[in-house]
Amino acid sequence: MTSPVETAVADAFREEWGRVVASLISRTGDWDLAEDCAQDAFAKALETWQREGVPRNPGAWLMTTARNRALDRLRRNTTGARKLQELAMQPPSDEPRRDEERSVPDDRLRLIFTCCHPSLSVEAQVALTLRTLAGLTTAEIARAFLVPEPTMAKRLVRAKNKIRNAGVPYRVPPDHLLPERTSAVLAVIYLLFNEGYAASSGAELVRHPLCAEAIRSARTLAGLMPDEPEALGLLALLLLQDSRRAARVNDADELVPLEEQDRSLWDADAIREGLAILDAVLRRGRPGPYQVQAAIAACHASTGETDWTEIVLLYGELVRMVPSPIVHLNRAVAVAMAEGPDAGLRLVQAIEASGALDGYRLLPATRADLLRRLDRPAEAANAYREALGVAATDAERRYLSRRLAETARSSGR
């Protein structure tokens, strides 16, 4: 059984990891040192809080402990003398320094922009942000990218080396350089939210701090780039998606599909804000993928009957803009809801035949659901077994296990 201190440390990790690492990178310029010292601080918390109790402000305790650890490491390293002097002159908290107050007083957003430097590939940008800001393990990131863990480990090392060797500045770039990083920053914030909204592994389906961090970053970015429609589109999308977060898991900690969710648990304020932002940005007449996805999310967030025909049309537009296999899979689900499970299953089978989503955990789960709705229980049961074998979270496994039991009974197996 997890102790109260272990729970407190786990909660603090989800809340504070990105803040601590971003602050240390800002002050030392050393990515590996920052991650190592942050890890040391959380390990020390597990030991110290057991003995002395959880502090009133866990974030401040962790920040101070990590910073002191960095100071100790630099003192032992003669090449760190100059950096030690710089660090000692900076404030102990993660408050903005005077030279940064006029730009963006947030180390975490500066970290995202640094990770999204154009010298890095998009995959490296996203992976590095998920590692340093969100604290995901290399294994978790590898699963999100559908690649082996050693491959992802090498990508992360190469990305850090490139940033260090190229002397990439740790800052939000000036206005004239913002456009070249916009798409990468938007993608990173979106994937950060996705990892919070539907975790790639672990006991929890929803990681609330990651969702909150992504929305906070999207707000800051929208304020930084008010004339960029896709920045506003992303903010609208995240608000509309996040509005349903409380209804996605039931009291038994089991995943709840959209059509079965208790809509009274949806966040009406987030829906109103998201719809208002979406309406305003669509009037500009410069549509993009995040705006289209926000429009789809708006259809899902309707308190009335879901307009699946409209969603299919919107997915058709999204496929034109972003012809990825995952978008095709999502469109297949919409087609199944609008035209019947048989039509959706044909599209899913075509995606499977292409091999484009081999290893993607939601593919067999989608096929299983469509087979169940077609009253083909034996095939559905086999598909649910396959989905269980690659399920990422306990909430998903509980949901799939229940469906498997239902279909197994129907098939007599």
CATH class of the domain at 302-411: Mainly Alpha
- Please give the alpha-carbon distance between the first and last residues: 35 Å
Query: In DSSP terms, counting alpha (H) and pi (I) runs of 4 or more, how many helices?
Result: 19
Approximately how much beta-strand content do the residues carry? under 5%
Give the CATH topology of the domain at 302-411.
Serine Threonine Protein Phosphatase 5, Tetratricopeptide repeat
CATH superfamily of the domain at 302-411: Tetratricopeptide repeat domain
Q: Average pLDDT, to the nearest integer? A: 86
Query: Uncertain runs with pLDDT below 50, 5 residues or more?
Result: 92-104
Shape verdict: globular
Order of helices and strands: HHHHHHHHHHHHHHHHHHH
Question: Which CATH architecture of the domain at 302-411 is right?
Answer: Alpha Horseshoe
Give me the count of strands: 0
Please outline the major beta sheet. none
Radius of gyration: 23 Å
| Helical content band | 55-70%
Which class of secondary structure composition applies to the elements?
mainly alpha
